[in-house]
Amino acid sequence: MHSIEIKCENLSKSFSGKNIFKGFSYNFTSGSSAVITGRNGSGKSTLVKVISNLIQPSKGSISVKIKDKQIPGTDYFRYTGLVSPYLNLYDELTGFENLTFFYELKSDGKSAGSEKNEKIDFYLNKVNMYERRNDVIRTYSTGMKQKLKIAFALMNQPEILILDEPGSNLDKEGKDLIKNVCDEQKEKGLLILATNNEREKEYCSEVINIEDYK
Hints:
four-stranded antiparallel beta sheet, alpha/beta, 9 strands, globular
């Protein structure tokens, strides 16, 4: 397991003068897993977006080190897998085409065709979506789209896996998949999970209540 650290120092975020959270300081490290909880609208997803470098904090700083190497914010996505409601798929493309696009984006197109296709097929099978790989996304149910997002998040074998409400719209098979994904990630890297689901809360060793930072 690589040495991984996400260091959050006195993070605050506000929109149009409204405070979402403030004074958030925490060290996420490899070998640990953390769940972010809080009521709906309390700022869980906002904190996830800040940690993922999708948005900037209003105050404070965040740094990422992997194997003692400082990772620039522009390169976070190469080391991070994210599953979230605000991750958009392309409805006019097939499942396979969506994963191909995102895979090439993360790998800078460096992987050979056969290697790339084998990896995409592997993760489609992992989330039980291989048989629907050639169907366009607009024909997918919300649960199927969620499974494809999980495949997307895992494809680059991320050191950091961030799951925001991952069990949304999933059946029992899908929820079991989430547990397996979490268990595997804890063995090889860092897991951050944002959820209010009682079952999912048990997947992590540490609990952060975002409402403590108001």
